From TrEMBL:
The lineage of its organism: Bacteria, Bacillati, Actinomycetota, Actinomycetes, Kitasatosporales. Binds 1 [4Fe-4S] cluster per subunit. The keyword Lipid metabolism does not apply. SUPFAM superfamilies: Adenine nucleotide alpha hydrolases-like. The active site is at C232. [4Fe-4S] cluster binds at C123, C124, C206, C209. NCBIfam families: cysH (TIGR00434), PRK02090.1 (NF002537). This is Adenosine 5'-phosphosulfate reductase. Keywords: Cytoplasm, Iron, Iron-sulfur, Metal-binding, Oxidoreductase. GO terms for biological process: hydrogen sulfide biosynthetic process; sulfate assimilation, phosphoadenylyl sulfate reduction by phosphoadenylyl-sulfate reductase (thioredoxin).
Length: 236
C-alpha cells in the first residue's frame, strides 16, 4: 500500500469509528460487538487483562474463535495466569499471549531491580505499551473492557472511538456498564473471573503495582497506589 492509500485508509477508518461512536452510543454491548464482527471480521480482537472474561465472552458469542490478546508482563499474580489458562481451556476464543522484548531478569540487569518503583512509566512502556503496539499491528480494531464508572479518567470513554496513536478503531462495548451490570452478567452466564476479585482486589494488574482497595475507594484506587500514576499508557 502506498503512503497515499494508507492515509486514505486511515482517514476512512477514523471517520467510520467516529460515526459508529455516535450511532452506537445507546446500543447494547452485543449490538456493538455484532457491528465490530460484521465490520472487521478476523481483523478485530479483544484485549484482556484477565481480571474477568466478560468482554471475551460477549465477543465470542458474536465472533466464535475471536482472538483474545493478553499481555504477560512477567509481573502478574499466579491467579491472573491461571485465569488466562482457564479462559483458553473453556471458552470459544483464541488466546494470544504477548510478551515484552526483555524478560524481567534482562530488564533488571539493564535498568536495575524494581524499575516499577523508580520509573513505572518506563516499566509500563517496555512491558505493556510496546508489546501491545506490536501485537495489535495486524488488526484494524480492538476491544477493551474500559468502563466509564471505573475512574474519572475513564468517564468519557466512547463505545467506539479512534485510537489516534495506533491508527485503529477502539471499541469499548461495556463503557456504559456499571459494576452491578458486570456482576449480573458474570452470574447469569457463569463467566470466569480472577479469584483475586473475591479477595479484596477491585482491579487487577501487575503484582508489584496492585493492592486491595478500601471501602469507599474507586475500583482503580489500588493501582500504582500513592504514586500519582493512574493509567499504564495503553489507553492514553
Ligand atoms: S504495572 Fe508496574 S510492574 Fe507492570 S509494567 Fe507497569 S510499572 Fe511495570
Amino acid at each position: 500500500m502506498t503512503a497515499v492509500q494508507e492515509k486514505h485508509r486511515t482517514d476512512d477508518l477514523k471517520a467510520l469509528a467516529e460515526q459508529a461512536g455516535r450511532d452506537l452510543e445507546d446500543a447494547t454491548a452485543p449490538e456493538i460487538l455484532r457491528w465490530a464482527a460484521d465490520t472487521f471480521g478476523r481483523a478485530f480482537c479483544v484485549t484482556s487483562s484477565m481480571e474477568d472474561a466478560v468482554v471475551a465472552h460477549l465477543a465470542s458469542r458474536e465472533l466464535p474463535g475471536v482472538d483474545v490478546v493478553f499481555l504477560d508482563t512477567g509481573y502478574h499474580f499466579p491467579e491472573t495466569i491461571g485465569t488466562r489458562d482457564a479462559v483458553e481451556a473453556v471458552m470459544d476464543v483464541n488466546v494470544i499471549t504477548l510478551t515484552p522484548a526483555r524478560t524481567v531478569a534482562e530488564q533488571d540487569a539493564e535498568h536495575g531491580p524494581r524499575l516499577h518503583d523508580r520509573d513505572p512509566d518506563l516499566c509500563c512502556r517496555m512491558r505493556k505499551v510496546e508489546p501491545l503496539e506490536r501485537g495489535l499491528a495486524s488488526y484494524l480494531a480492538w476491544a477493551t473492557g474500559l468502563r466509564r464508572d471505573e475512574s474519572p479518567t475513564r468517564a468519557n470513554t466512547p463505545v467506539v472511538g479512534w485510537d489516534e496513536r495506533r491508527g485503529k478503531v477502539k471499541i469499548s462495548p461495556i463503557a456504559r456498564w456499571t459494576q452491578d451490570d458486570v456482576d449480573a452478567y458474570v452470574a447469569e452466564h457463569g463467566v470466569l473471573t480472577n479469584p483475586l476479585l473475591m479477595d479484596g482486589y477491585a482491579s487487577v494488574g501487575c503484582a508489584p503495582c496492585t493492592r486491595r482497595v478500601l471501602a469507599g475507594e474507586d475500583a482503580r484506587a489500588g493501582r500504582w497506589s500513592g504514586s500519582g500514576k493512574t493509567e499504564c499508557g495503553l489507553h492514553g
